Structures are given as C-alpha cells and as structure tokens.
Amino acid sequence: MLTPASILGLHHFAWRCRDAEETRRFYEDLLGLPLVHVIHLDRVPSTGEFCPYVHLFFEMADGSNIAFFDLGDHTAALPSANTPAWVNHIALRVFSHEALVGMKARIEAAGVEVLGVIDHHFVHSIYFFDPNGLRVELTVQTAGDDELRAFRNSAHTKLAAWTRDKSSVPKTSASSAPSV
C-alpha cells in the first residue's frame, strides 16, 4: 500500500475542450494561468489509436496544471446524465479573500455568471462555468490549523455515519440543483 507521502501532488487534471484557442483565452487571458506546453499528435501514445488532437497545459503557481484535449471536432465533453451540474468540478486555490473577490469581479466583467462568495466553513468559494461547460471553483482557505486538525480527526467518523445512514437520506431531484 502506498503511503500518502508517495503521491507528491496533482500534476494535471485533463478535460476535453471544444476549441483550443477559446479555452486558452479563458484560462490564460481571463484566469491568468500561462499556457506552458502543447502536444500535437495524430496518434494516442497510450493506445496507438488514430485521433489527431492537441493537448494544452496551463500551469498554476504550485507547478500543477489544468490540461485540455481539443479533438478538432468542436465538441465539448458531455455532462453526465445521472449527476447534477454542480457535482463534477475542479477547485483551484487562490492566495487570499481579496484575491477571490478580485477574481470574481474580473470574471463577471468578462460576462461570465459567477455564484458566490459561498462560506463553506473552512473555505470561501466562487463558482462559474468555463467555455466547455466545466464547473470551476476558486477557493481560499479560511480555517486555521486547529480547525483543520479537528476536521481531519473527525473525517472517518463522519464518513462512517454517512455510510450507515445514507439509505434513509431523502432523494432529491438533480433538476432542482442550481445551474452555477
């Protein structure tokens, strides 16, 4: 079994995009993540399958990346029919509450609908969709070390309670979930 120290962190999260340049404008020009690498191939290295594509990498301050595949057909990834739109998302950290509020203003000024600032009692977050329909969360940690330690110490107990009790949780409609 691997220990947590064996995994150093996120290298990249990859998602399908409908247009590489549209995606570049959003992530580089609007969110400020530099485009640092582009792979353009006709065959998928892991499978040998013929599928011309471009693979874009946008770097975050910690060296991790968010990446996208443009398959040249102007098609974005389809949402999951059995999952509310707010469930699948990527959350990216910002440095401060002021940075979060500043990014909200910047994104809204570009005509993108933003939900939040939402207080999750350990982070504050804003939510919006990129041009590909990927839900993005920008977040800043608000919990201190003592709070984080308490969360960590109670995590397994809370998960065990959910596992025990989830069959009695009332079912909700995914269509009633907020769209942003």
Description of the molecule:
With 180 residues, the protein is an alpha/beta fold. 25% of the residues lie in helices and 31% in strands. The strands form 2 sheets. A 4-stranded mixed β-sheet has the order 1-4-3-2.
Tell me the name of the CATH class of the largest domain: Alpha Beta
- Strand order of the biggest β-sheet: 1-4-3-2
- Considering the protein shown, what is the CATH homologous superfamily of the largest domain? 2,3-Dihydroxybiphenyl 1,2-Dioxygenase, domain 1
The portion of residues forming beta strands comes to: 25-35%
Major sheet characteristics:
4 strands, mixed
Query: What is the H-and-E element order?
Result: EHEEEEHEEEH
Q: Under the CATH scheme, which architecture of the largest domain would be assigned?
A: Roll
Overall, the morphology is: globular
Unreliable runs, pLDDT <50, ≥5 residues? Answer: none
Radius of gyration: 19 Å
**Count of the domains:** 2
Structural class: alpha/beta
Which characteristics define this entry?
2,3-Dihydroxybiphenyl 1,2-Dioxygenase, domain 1; four-stranded mixed sheet; 180 residues; 8 strands
Task: Please specify the SSE layout and strand pairing.
Layout: E1 12-17, H1 20-30, E2 35-43, E3 50-59, E4 65-70, E5 89-93, H2 97-109, E6 115-119, E7 123-129, E8 135-141, H3 145-165
Parallel strand pairs: 1-4, 5-8
Antiparallel strand pairs: 2-3, 3-4, 6-7, 7-8
